[in-house]
User: What shape does this take?
Amino acid sequence: MANPTLEMIQGMLYGNGLRIGKLSPAGRIIAALMGRHGDVVPFMGPQIHDHAMTVAKVPARRYYFDAHLLVDVQIAIDHWYGFDSCTIIPDAYNFEVEALGAKFIYSDNAMPTVDTNQPLIRERADLDKIGPLDPLKGRIPMGVELAALVSKKAGGPFAAGFFCSPFSLLCQAMGYPKAVRALKRDRVFAQELFDWAENIAIWPYLKAQAAQPGVKQSLGADAWSAFPNLNPELVEEWVLPSARRMMARGKKELGITVMAGGAAADYCEEDPAKFDKEIMFKCLAVSRKTFFVLDIALSAMGRTQDWNMAWLQEFAVQNGKGGRKLPIFASLNGRFMRDSTPEQIFAKVREWINIMGRDGRLLFFIANVPADTPPINVHTALYAVHTLGRYPIVKDLASIKIELPKFQPFDEWLKGQPEAETIFKAREWKPEKKVFA
Assistant: This one.
């Protein structure tokens, strides 16, 4: 097993000009983040839970309730594709509200989903009726176990537990319209909601995670606070103070890094005719403040295939220090990945590397891979990044001929892998038959 500390040291040295030895995938990422660049542009593992389940052909009613299965499936899929990091996360928005009593819809082939027709919070009085989260209820024990398994099986600087950040949790519990209305029109109620979310709904979950061996950090997903759901001003006013409170309390009381607000202020304008550079820059500026540990320029869930990426490059250069731009996380949009041809993906990767990759500090990823994305498209994206993104970047990227990558079908590749037994056995699982009197 690789030594994460040595990988980090080598990556930092390599990225700063002392290029000794062959970089590991993790070292490649560190080189891009902490230096200028490594050997090639890294491609980080994406959020992939539904897609991984689909490719592995395991039942949703087992996959989303069994931490060992979910971890093994995502590790196997990440390794099969060859990503430079292993990102393991389930349906991160659903654990707390489910355990608190929200009504859910369960499926044979998709993640559990909150029933928006039966909200957990309908009025202020409901906050007092719900009571604190019990870490033994619902799938919270699975989430706690998952945090420990990730630290054990996919350890390193990117290993983390997960939770649902406060604003997104409120949207799950009461619906987006009521949640955002409270922020805009009823500050007293809004603060009560955030206090409830942080301390009553989320904190017991974090406490249970922190008690597990090896868990050093937990990341809070917050897609509901992306733009235009919330404008940058509302993120500054509500999401960031909440994230700072949780970070400080996590460090003081639990001894772990708690990072809420993941994807807050992410620029997700859907209409290209409304793309606005000034607003995008405001979103990027606020988004920087949510990471605490890293200072990056992030694109994630937005319609990035239609962005002018010269804007993202400009922002990164303007806000860099010491002659180095901010590291850019360039996300290939999930729908673009699902619906495009391999040739279109090649072209997009070539375009982005030409604009943002020549001076280094560029990392690719996919914010979330849809379940039905053709695997050839994911293999193509990674192959294109690792082929076109070799340093030093050639002057004319069009001169590099790219062919469709050849890859072994997942089931053939899986044979002999450590995760094979868990996955093949899960395919045989059948739900217990209920006997009614």
